[in-house]
Records
---
Amino acid sequence: MFFFFAGGLEQQVRQVLKSGAGRCISCGSRADLVGYEKVLKLFFVPVWRSPGKEPAMYCDNCKLFFPQSYSFPPPPQIDPSLPDVLRCRFCNGVVEPDFSFCPFCGSAL
């Protein structure tokens, strides 16, 4: 006798609380602050939903949920009075010439 089980637990966005609240820790794109719920699916049919305990960040680009405390800080404001300096191509933050990675978003320079 064999038993085949097709199911799992996944997270789904319930509502967007604040759009563009931070940056994704994986791809560096905009991430939204969302309320989410955990959904138990059996044979690809949702059978049970449970609300998340606290809001989380969600990246729509790479579909990643992560805690709000892990979010990158917002990029610094651009000061037009600064001379031509090395800037990150992803977040436009000013970086030192000897850096290999951006200290603001973590992307390779």
---
Amino acid sequence: MTDLAHQRLGLPAAASPYTVLRAAVRALHPDTRAVRGFRAARKRFYRQILCAHATRRTAVDDPAR
């Protein structure tokens, strides 16, 4: 199962987690980033993106899976 938000970032599997996180932050609208009440949702979104990237990275590293 792949995350559509992660796919939309268009990053290669070799990208570092920091690069993925920076791309995810930029993908959000500035108004969304400014709302304090969305902080927990933003953190959840970032964790989800990083988890999807890690899954994709292990799938590329281990093609037998």
---
Amino acid sequence: MGLLSTAVRDVRTGRFERTLAGLTAAGAAVTAGEIFFSHDGASFGNTMMWWPVAVVPTAIPAGIAAVFSPRAARTVLPLASAAIVANGLQGTYLHWRGIAQRPGGITRYNVESGPPPFAPLLASLVGGMGLLAAVLRREGRH
């Protein structure tokens, strides 16, 4: 069997834990960088802006550990991922609140020029990937 057909079979049978854990680590690295630069561009005007900069990168070592350790995939990765999901939901609230506090409230202009309303949900998706990885079966055990 080729590598691609093996990967497809693993996904179909729910054996995708290691791969999804690795993708979670990679996604967290990219997302953490994007969050840092976006919040830095806003001069970290609210101290709450530091939370995702601290929380999202926790999935990087947790995801890498989960690739190599089934135990880490069941313990550390879900904890880091749940924290990221919670922080993303909190960030969504804070971004919408920031938009609403702008002059004129929630208008198309304020949604387009204010804090990105859905960006924190993207971080939550990275956390969701980690939570999903934690409940899947590991590749290579057939």
